[in-house]
Amino acid sequence: MNKKPSFASWLLSILLLLACVAAVAKESSGTVVSLRGDTLERLKKNAWHTMVQGDKVSMGERLRTGRTAVAVIEFPGVGRFVMGPDSEIEMGREPKDFTTKMNRGALWMQTALPVGNRAAISTPIAIAGVRGTAFSMVFGEGDKAICACTCTGNIEVTSPDGRKLTVPKGEYVAIDAGRSVPTKAQPSAPVLEQSGTVFDFCQACHVLGGKGKLKPEWK
After folding, report:
1. Which carries the bigger pLDDT value, residue 67 or residue 198?
2. Which candidate, 118, 165, 108, 173, places its Cα nearest to that of 146?
3. What pLDDT does residue 1 have?
4. What are the sequence ranges of the domains in the chain?
């Protein structure tokens, strides 16, 4: 004869279920860990709302930064994202294939992915994807041009015609809409030597005025 479960076992089951739900919720949200220079906003119910440091960010949320803002967002199991000034993105929706859409501006990504997972930055004219651990940056002018570069690890850029280009450490690829896609990536050092940094928040990993030299903690 089967015995009915005791109240204690029933309560334990409920607690375990709640713990699992909480763990899933934690993994599916990120946090604004830093914000400087200007505003960060999220789109909710067809209106933009101001965010502050410490706010949670859900998968699939649409965010934008002010003209001088730099926002840092961390997602457990994915990595860290740095939004440049005047940028607009839509965070990834799938934890195992975390593809973030960038409508304009610049987005820096340092991944910390479990084995088998993937992250990517998608723009109107190309997709930059990565597996494993790497940090890279994608910036452009909407559907006119895009540049993808990486400082550590490899990224794979897929052009509108399906062509795939590997961008290894220390190189970049630039794609202009309406023009032929480059056959290979180019070294970043000559550009960095001339400009100091490719974009202002490259200062996160490059020595300011160091002609492309990486900070010791990023080697």
Report:
1. 67
2. 173
3. 47
4. 29-187
Q: The domain 29-187: what is its CATH number?
A: 2.60.120.1440
SS3 label, residue 39? coil
The most confident of 1-10, 55-64, 77-86, by mean pLDDT: 55-64
- d(CA 142, CA 124) in angstroms, rounded, equals 7
Instruction: Tell me the pairing of strands 186-187 and 56-58.
Output: unpaired
What distance in Å separates the CA atoms of residue 166 and residue 169, rounded to the nearest whole number?
10
The helices-and-strands tally (H runs, E runs) of the chain is: 2, 17
Per-residue pLDDT tens over the stretch 106-123 = 888 888 888 889 999 998
Q: Alpha-carbon distance 177 to 144, whole Å?
A: 5
Name the β-bridge partners of 121. Answer: 100, 128
Characterise 66 by phi-psi region: left (phi > 0), alpha (psi -120 to 50), beta (else).
beta
